[in-house]
């Protein structure tokens, strides 16, 4: 009787645990969507995902993890289902963390949130990054890494981020990693020596480097370790042995000129590299030359990020010229550098060689009108399929508006447009808004905040997006829109297909403010605004044949 009862109970338990009901799966997607799109330590560091992008990622993560867990469930000898549930939960958590660390991007980029390869059935990912950041001692390291010591394990991906290893813990980890290094394909050791004295941190890096030497990795993340040149060279043995890398992340690592030089010298080949991220370093013009050398030797690069790296005009020119070799590039992020006009012009000469671009981030580069117009004229011809265009903070004024408008008219696949923190005023706003009215059915986000425009500009942008299906955010904050103008914007949105939900915050709008009109006399008062608005219907955007 006991034996029969024992045989029966697991089958009953299996039905309760797996597969999850459709409502449970949907609930998980909604919960992940909320987590991905809510302000957190990750969003402050890597950027906040929009609700739509978060939802698309959540659906993809859930489907990927459900499929993996379901395959695992079918192979369970007892049919229990509990390990499938554990795998389902663990993998969703892992992939959600990877999406958060990658930051906002288009759906195309997020096909596989952790990496481009899909999850395989069974335990292939060991992730100890969850929970609070903490120091790891030898005994805890032994316990945390014990799954890697089991005979016949199939772990291919490890993530030790957010845990700080000392020398004792590293000496425990070293032999374990060496025993599985031939099966590993993805290693994330970002932020794994936080708070350690420099000498100890360097020793830990050397231990890990020696242990992983000779592994054939496609993905390596050594970000957030304050490497500098000493840290890069501490990873010498690991880096020298990597000839098959497809993704390399060296963000927030104190990469100076010497560190960039060391990195370019140590990695023997970047021919297979598809993703290279250098965000938030101290590279400068001199270091940019070595980064450019790596880029030039990466013909298969698809995703390049070199934002916030203190690169000026000379480095920007060198980098822009090197990018000409990356003819498969889909995503380019150069934000928050000091490129200036000359580097912008150099970039414009390279863009015709990049016909596959889908996203380009060029905010805060000091391009000014001349550099911006050169870039836009190139993009108009070479990348009409562009989905994301960011040009915030480039000192663009109304004189550049016709070039912006012509470019936008050619880009009918655009999903996100950012022109914030420029000086468009009403005159430029009218021209650009008019170019967005017709077509652009896929447009979802428009950010024209802090552009010195008033009622006219606000009304024009509201009209431009009012009837676009799927539109989610209009940001006109930080301008000089009167209370009457705000009411008009709301009326336009309420009367059209989109509701007021698409209107972003207006907490920094100054209804009493006026633009500096040294060069512009179009927006002195409401009468002038109304006169300009009345001319809106006659504005045409010239297109090249």
TrEMBL record:
It holds the Pfam family LRR_6. The keyword Nucleus applies. GO terms for cellular component: cytoplasm; nucleus. Keywords: Cytoplasm, Nucleus. Residues 503-545 are annotated as: Disordered. Residues 507-532 have a biased composition (Acidic residues). This is WPP domain-containing protein.
């Amino acid at each position: 009787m006991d034996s029969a009862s024992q045989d029966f109970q697991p089958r009953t338990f299996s039905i309760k645990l797996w597969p999850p009901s459709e409502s449970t799966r949907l609930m998980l997607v909604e919960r992940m969507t909320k987590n991905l799109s809510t302000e957190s330590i990750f969003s402050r560091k890597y950027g906040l995902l929009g609700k739509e992008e978060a939802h698309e990622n959540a659906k993809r993560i859930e489907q990927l993890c459900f499929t993996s867990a379901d395959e695992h469930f079918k192979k369970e000898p007892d049919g229990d289902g509990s390990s499938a549930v554990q795998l389902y939960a663990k993998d969703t958590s892992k992939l959600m963390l990877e999406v958060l660390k990658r930051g906002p991007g288009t759906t195309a980029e997020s096909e596989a949130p952790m990496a481009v390869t899909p999850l395989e059935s069974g335990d292939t990912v060991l992730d100890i990054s969850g929970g609070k950041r903490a120091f790891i001692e030898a005994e805890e390291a032994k316990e945390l890494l014990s799954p890697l010591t089991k005979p016949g394990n199939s772990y291919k991906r490890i993530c030790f981020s957010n845990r700080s290893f000392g020398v004792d813990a590293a000496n425990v980890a070293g032999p374990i990693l060496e025993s599985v290094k031939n099966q590993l394909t993805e290693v994330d050791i970002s932020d794994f020596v936080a708070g350690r004295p420099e000498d100890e941190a360097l020793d830990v890096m050397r231990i890990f480097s020696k242990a992983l030497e000779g592994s054939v990795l496609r993905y390596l993340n050594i970000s957030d370790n304050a490497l500098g040149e000493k840290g890069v060279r501490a990873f010498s043995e690991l880096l020298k042995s990597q000839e098959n890398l497809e993704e390399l992340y060296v963000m927030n690592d104190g990469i100076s000129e010497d560190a960039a030089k060391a990195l370019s010298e140590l990695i023997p080949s970047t021919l297979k590299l598809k993703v290279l991220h250098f965000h938030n370093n101290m590279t400068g013009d001199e270091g940019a030359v070595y980064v450019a050398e790596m880029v030039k030797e990466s013909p298969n690069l698809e995703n390049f990020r070199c934002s916030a790296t203190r690169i000026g005009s000379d480095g920007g020119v060198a980098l822009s010229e090197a990018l000409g070799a990356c003819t498969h590039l889909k995503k380019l992020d150069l934000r928050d550098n000091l490129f200036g006009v000359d580097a912008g012009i150099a970039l414009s000469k390279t863009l015709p060689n990049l016909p596959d671009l889908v996203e380009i981030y060029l905010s805060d580069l000091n391009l000014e009108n001349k550099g911006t117009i050169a870039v836009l004229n190139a993009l108009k011809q070479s990348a009409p399929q562009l989905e994301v265009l960011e040009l915030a903070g480039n000192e663009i004024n109304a004189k550049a508006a016709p070039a912006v408008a012509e470019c936008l008219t050619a880009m009918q696949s655009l999903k996100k447009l950012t022109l914030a923190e420029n000086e468009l005023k009403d005159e430029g706003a009218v021209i650009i808004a008019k170019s967005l009215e017709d077509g652009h059915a896929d447009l979802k986000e428009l950010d024209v905040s802090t552009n010195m425009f008033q009622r006219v500009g606000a009304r024009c942008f509201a009209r431009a997006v009012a009837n676009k299906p799927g539109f989610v955010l209009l940001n006109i904050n930080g301008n000089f829109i009167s209370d009457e103008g705000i009411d008009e914007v709301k009326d336009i949105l309420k009367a059209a297909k989109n509701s007021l939900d698409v209107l972003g915050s207006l907490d920094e709008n100054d209804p009493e403010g006026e633009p500096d009109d040294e060069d512009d006399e179009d927006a002195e008062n409401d009468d002038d605004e109304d006169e300009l608005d009345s001319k809106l219907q006659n504005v045409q955007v010239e297109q090249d044949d």
